[in-house]
Amino acid sequence: MRTIYKRRSIRKFEDRPVEREKILKVLEAGMNAPSAMNQQPWQFVVIDDQNIIKKVLEVHPFARPAKEAPVSILVCGDLEKELAEGYWPIDCAAAVQNMLLEVTDIGLGGCWLGIYPKPERVACLKEALSVPETIVPFALIAVGYPAEDKEEKKLFDSSRIRYNRWDVLYQQ
User: Which pTM does this prediction carry?
Assistant: First the structure.
């Protein structure tokens, strides 16, 4: 739970590269996410070329953390690997969450930048990275050493819990 509480969206990064070994650990975490029918419908693109990020900023008003980060990872859905129709976005979201938890656990910071389902963002990344037709850019994760410190956050809210029926609320 400690890593979950500690994980926060980091938008400011130190000006230093992230070691390849750490990037591979983050990718391994993503690839170990659960997926419908174990379809693992993901592909990943590691981006350290700021010219690509500049193109993203033209269509994505909230992608500034990627400009600040030394590396970003694009998580994509691979439609050719889709066994359970319509579940690839859920599977990719699980991969992103695993990656963000690993980022935090190994002393880095990260920020989830949504790409899918915004058509202009998907198209921009497909073009900038020469992505094949059967691959759908899903999310961009800005990754680096944090240049900001955020407090742990616990978001438990018992008013959102029900038992067996909607009208039976959680009782402490």
Answer: 0.96
